[in-house]
Amino acid sequence: MPSVMVRRNDQGKLLFYVAKKDLEEVISEVEHDTAATWGGEITLSDGEKFFIDPISPPPTFPTTLRFKRAD
Amino acid sequence: MAALTREETQNLIQEVLAVYPEKAKKDRAKHLMVNDPSLESAKKCITSNRKSLPGVMTIRGCAYAGSRGVCWGPIKDMIHVSHGPVGCGMYSTMGRRHYSNGTTGADIFTTINVTSDFQEKDIVFGGDKKLKVIIDELEKLFPLAKGYTVQSECPIGLIGDDIETVSKVKSAEINKTIVPVRCEGFRGVSQSLGHHIANDAIRDWVLPTREGKDDGFEKTPYDVNILADYNIGGDIWPSRMLLEEIGLRVIAQVPGDGTLMEMEKSIHAKLNLLHCYRSMNYISRHMEEKFGMPWMEYNLFGPTKIEESLRAIAERFDDKIKDGVERVLAKYKPQWQAVVDKYRPRLEGKKVMLYVGGLRPRHIIGAYEDLGMEVVGTGYEFGHNDDYDRTIKEVGDATLIYDDVTAYELDEFVKKIKPDLIGSGIKEKYQFQKMGFPFRQMHSWDYSGPYHGYDGFAIFARDMDMTLNNPCWKEMKAPWLRPAAVEQAA
Questions:
Q1: What is the reported pLDDT for B37?
Q2: Residue of B164, B240, B172, B160 lying closest to B200 (CA atoms)
Q3: What pLDDT was estimated at residue B267?
């Protein structure tokens, strides 16, 4: 259950940052990304997958959220 | 073009690793790579921020060094108490040349060295009492100090002293900020964790003091902070002059030549300008999340990078700043052009190898390239993956990149690549000079500087020329060992 900071980069894409792991990766896919909810299974650009229960209304970025590892 | 081809570099790595035992070889191989700028991420090619191998000499520091020396040390109006045995405190006395303006003992305390000098009885009975006494004594000696930080050395964590409580109690008593920093040296694999801990201490103990309160601060739309510029040899001053000249208002310099009050009011800025990504990205990320303050990295080494950075900064502001940037670029063009015209013919085509920490392995490459020099090897002492992600874009194809390189490896790489100039730390300096290689100590600019901005570039170019073209490198061989022909010619 890593604590993850999600923020936008200069291109407006979402970045997934885990300080303890030195992991900073662009989020390539979000399962639910609508005006009402945000979350579900999240795929990073290097193929790693994480999961978060869908949040509604969607959070404002940057923010710190707790994700689960999706296997 | 790199000095060696991709294959040659690959072979060189194999050759150097051959002497290690199997296990060590496997481990060290992960820390060495041949650059490929087309890569997006360095994760697959290089491992970093891991424990150094036992039995080999590397040049890393400890968490205490990262906090006391790097992040907190330059804050000039606070007294930094090295809490623990005397050695750590002694060796962190202004070795880093972070300059500050002011009068020592009145408004600056960076050159003063305070340690609690732990003895056996403090280990047995705890050092909290001693810390209280120290704060009282300091209050009497230096009543003008704006605050204190307690920088823990290893024993504090081992015996479990409660420096937080002492700090809170004393802080309420004397009505000044006291920041306990849990930066015991054994934490983490290098000074990098010390930076993180110091950032967390700023987040927890300094930034909240003015949060949500009306402190009467008058904001302008052009307020920026300079973060993580440590004012080595006066670096922050030319940087600040440039930023002010383009029309920005620098409200806080953290930590180089900075004060406690600047840190507190930094929460009012519009933008964080982050110089050393490695050491203070944590606080920028926190401020972005908490105060919605964006941050960006910039680089003021050499005219090409200055132009790029100033333009990128101006993108975040309106036309006033954009015009300011164009005006400044035009104003300084003749100045740096004269520097390039003078030194480039003397330095053109020379090869440089770097091995430093923080931001320099990638940031100063631009300045070398402006002088026609080429970086053929670079590496970080304590970089993380995100540093290497940023580095692979800056250096050429097939360039050797090494992480936490050991003394033996660096020796062998240098012998093989034969660079014209090496830039690294004091621990390598005399070894390479004795081997006959021109060397600059690039941690604190070899007692020179500043190197930032246009003024700094002129000094940088002069220093490189002075080192590289010094006649002493021709005198490395004893007269009786020289071939007779050379002797006659001389």
A1: 86
A2: B164
A3: 94
What CA–CA distance (Å, rounded) separates B104 from B82?
A: 18
From the candidates B65, B71, B145, B269, which is the catalytic residue?
Answer: B65
Domain hosting B35: range is: 1-60+343-490
Question: Nearest chain A Cα to B390, which residue?
Answer: A24
Assess whether B62 carries a catalytic annotation. yes
- Which among B62, B198, B228, B276 is annotated as catalytic? B62
Q: What is the mean pLDDT for each group of 10 consecutive residues in chain A (71 residues)?
A: 86 86 85 88 88 88 88 72
Give the single-character DSSP code of B225.
Answer: E
DSSP letter assigned to residue B248 = -
Read off the CATH number of the domain in which A14 is found.
2.40.50.240
Residue among B404, B352, B353, B399 at smallest CA distance from B380: B404
Residue type (1 letter), B251: I
- ipTM (interface predicted TM): 0.89
φ/ψ (deg, to 5) at B428? -95, -20
Tell whether B227 and B169 lie within a shared domain. no
Q: Are B368 and B351 within 8 A, CB to CB? A: no
pLDDT digits (tens, 9 = 90+) for A57-66: 888 888 999 9
Q: Domain range spanning residue A53?
A: 3-69
